[in-house]
Specification:
The longest helix is centred in the middle third of the chain and has 12 residues. The chain has five helices and ten strands. The termini are far apart. It has 194 residues and is of the alpha+beta class. 22% of the residues lie in helices and 30% in strands. The model has no long low-confidence stretch (mean pLDDT 92).
Length: 194
C-alpha cells in the first residue's frame, strides 16, 4: 500500500512569504495536534490531570508543555501539542477530562497556523481586524476570536511589543487569508525612493 504524503495547504505560498521584508514576516506554522476541550468546572484537579492550568480569563492563552491552551469560551478550550500525534492528544485529554464530566475532540485538521512577525504586523492586521491590537491592550497571552479580512480566525499575541502573532484559520480559508495577508502587506514591501 502506498503511503500518502501530507501536504500543507499553504505550501504554494511559502515562496511569496519568504520574499516579504523583516518588517512584515509571514511564515506557515507546522502541523500541530489540536483538541477542543469542553469542561464545565475548571479547578486544580483539571489542571493536574491535563498537565496545564487552563486559562479561565476570557480571551487569553497560556503555554502548555509542548503547545498552548487557548480560552475559546466559558467552558471551551483549544489545546495544542507539537510532540503528540492527534489521536494521542485526543486520547490523553479525553482520559483526563471524562471523569470530570468533560469531553475532548480532535480538531487537528480544522485550523492552519500562520506566524506574523515584524514592526508593521499590527498595521497589516488592522486593515482587516477590528480588535485593538495595541500591546498595552493585546499583549503576550491575549487571544481573540475575530475576523481577519472576512475570514474567521483565532488570533494570539506572542509578545508585549505587538510584533509577534499567530493566526489560526480554518483550513478551507487558509489560501484566501494567505492572499489577503500578502495584499495587505504590499505597501510595506517597498522602500520609498527619493
Amino acid at each position: 500500500m502506498a503511503e500518502l504524503l501530507r501536504t500543507h495547504p499553504l505550501e504554494a505560498w511559502t515562496t511569496a512569504f519568504e520574499r516579504l521584508p523583516d518588517t512584515v514576516g509571514i511564515a506557515v506554522e507546522p502541523f500541530v495536534a489540536m483538541a477542543d476541550v469542553r469542561l464545565g468546572t475548571v479547578d486544580s484537579e483539571a489542571g493536574t490531570r491535563l498537565g496545564v492550568d487552563l486559562p479561565t480569563e476570557a480571551n487569553t492563552w497560556v503555554p502548555a508543555e509542548a503547545g498552548r491552551a487557548v480560552w475559546l469560551g466559558p467552558d471551551e478550550w483549544l489545546l495544542s501539542s507539537t510532540t503528540e500525534a492527534p489521536e494521542e492528544l485526543e486520547a490523553r485529554v479525553r482520559a483526563a477530562v471524562l471523569p470530570l464530566g468533560g469531553s475532548a475532540t480532535d480538531v487537528s485538521a480544522q485550523r492552519i497556523g500562520l506566524r506574523l512577525t515584524g514592526a508593521r504586523v499590527r498595521d497589516v492586521l488592522a486593515k482587516g481586524c477590528s480588535v485593538d491590537l495595541h500591546p498595552r491592550v493585546f499583549g503576550r497571552g491575549s487571544s481573540a476570536q475575530t475576523t481577519l479580512g472576512q475570514a474567521g480566525v483565532v488570533l494570539l499575541s506572542l509578545s508585549d511589543t505587538g510584533e509577534d502573532h499567530v493566526v489560526l484559520v480554518r483550513s478551507s480559508f487558509a489560501g484566501y487569508l494567505a492572499d489577503w495577508l500578502l495584499d495587505a502587506a504590499l505597501e510595506f514591501t517597498h522602500t520609498p525612493t527619493r
